[in-house]
Amino acid sequence: MHWVKKWYWQCMAREAVDIFNKKGYDARYAEDTEEAKKIILDLIPEGSSVAVGGSMTLDAMGLVDIFRTDKYKFFERFKTSGYAETYQVYRQSFLADFLVTGSSAITRNGEIVNTDSSGNRAAGIILGPERVIIAVGANKLVDDLPAAFDRIKKVAPQNAKRIGHHCPCVETGYCVNCDHPESVCNATSIIHNGRKHPGRYTVVIIAEELGL
Ligand code: SF4
Q: Does the beta carbon of 185 sit less than 6 angstroms from any atom of ligand 1?
């Protein structure tokens, strides 16, 4: 990465950490994915049960394979016989010790915004697992909720393509506000601050451009 790009993401990440700590979250700065991975693993005691949201940022850290080892009890949502089984894993995941996930967007008002196909991430972040760890690249920081929704609609077609859905935007590359059964935009959650359950949310903000 060009040094001036790195400088830019460092500035964005530092700003976001400051905002999120003021809004009642436990926000941490990570220079890169290696440092973020260490922060996350240090937070999760061995023996914990762990659920994850689908996330290219987590993929970049190789965390899912670590959670599959016998050090953790992993809610295996990726190797199921089909959606009916996946859905049961999603429901059981609400009782996990930890949810580790990326996020669609974070805002300069300290909001965490997620739009999902199934709602497992959106719902779990609100009130599911005991602890929630959200890892995001600094590129996920936007000004406000309208900008977050713009961002979500811009990247959702790429996500739909990535995970093999057959909604209209995989043909167009842009959102057509579909009403399709394979839409990836069925549930949205907004966390406004971390004050209701102090210590529940850790937001790891990485000084890199990650995910879509
Ligand atoms: S609403 Fe439909 S068309 Fe728009 S991004 Fe979501 S899945 Fe694609």
A: yes
pLDDT of amino acid 47: 98
Distance 203 CA to ligand 1 centre (A): 27
For residue 175, how far is its CA from the centre of ligand 1 (angstroms)?
5
Choose among 194, 146, 211, 149: nearest CA to 28. 194
Domain 3-206 -> CATH class: alpha beta
Spell out the domain ranges in the chain.
Answer: 3-206
- Whether the full predicted model's pTM is greater than 0.85, yes or no, is yes
CB 163 less than 6 A from any atom of ligand 1: no
Any atom of ligand 1 within 6 Å of the Cβ of 187: no
Distance 167 CA to ligand 1 centre (A): 7
What is the full DSSP assignment across 119-149? SHHHHHHHHSSSEEEEEEEGGGEESSHHHHH
Q: What is the pLDDT of residues 82-136, one digit of tens each?
A: 999 999 999 999 999 999 999 999 999 999 999 999 999 999 999 999 999 999 9
Residue 46 clears pLDDT 90, i.e. is over it: yes
Other Cβ atoms closer than 10 A to 33: 21
Nearest residue (CA) to ligand 1, atom 4: 175
The amino acid at residue 28 is: R
Residue 198, both tokens = 């102090």
The DSSP secondary-structure symbol of 104 reads S
| CA 111 – ligand 1 centroid, Å | 22
Helix crossing, 83-93 with 120-127: angle to 10°?
10
